[in-house]
Amino acid sequence: MLVALSFLLAGLILVVPLVLIFSFALREGLEVYVANIVHPNTLHAIWLTVLTALIVVPINIVVGAALAWLVTRFRFRGRQLLVSFIELPAAMSPIVAGVVYLFLYGGQGLLGPSLQAAGIQIMFTPLAIVLVSLFVTAPYAARELIPLMSQQGTEDEEAALSLGANGWQMFFHVTLPNISWALVYGAVLTNARVMGEFGAVSVVSGAIRGQTNTLPLQINLLFNDFNVTGAFAAASTLTLIAVVTLIIKSVLEARRHA
Questions:
Q1: Is the distance from CB of 102 to CB of 128 less than 8 angstroms?
Q2: Are the C-beta atoms of residues 242 and 45 closer than 8 Å to each other?
Q3: pLDDT tens digit sequence for 13-28
Q4: Kind and range of the H or E run holding 20
């Protein structure tokens, strides 16, 4: 009964919304669905969303691995404070994060006038979307790695050093294989958050059609324009990207256990 109840709840929470998304997206026919997907503004939103993920995910994976290495392999004053700072973006409201960037880089912000005098525009550009996405997704890789690396200890790495390996050899041949799947999970979580982020991006992007609209913003604008079919078509694209990401993750896991 518990198993059946679990499947029922999973179906109601996960499957039913997915079915509704695609049914609303396709309710006017495949031709209208495709026409909504290939609309220039929606195509640009897809491109910008994917581009942001391609930039943000590798950077935060590298930074997360470095931070996890630092807090699990070294003992220093302020270590717990650093761990708290790592968790800060996850505890902060995305809207607040966007407003902070606006007050920092906006035209009336702390650095905005100096940047404008130098001919540099950050707010309401794709660069602002990348910067705020880096901030809101910063903890995900580190949060996957820190518990695992703390549990694993340092015995394998110390053995590699005693056998004459240098720091890079130790990391690539000992540490990295031990944390590779935590890195994959961190990348999946980071990618999901980047592509679905709305609050912070809506503040710093300006939601300019065909320029600074990511997919979540495009979906919202289409709803506001009463283009329900177009909104659900864009939402189905975001859903397909998420499904493809999960399939890639499952394939990698299958190869790992093979």
A1: no
A2: no
A3: 888 888 888 898 998 8
A4: helix 16-25
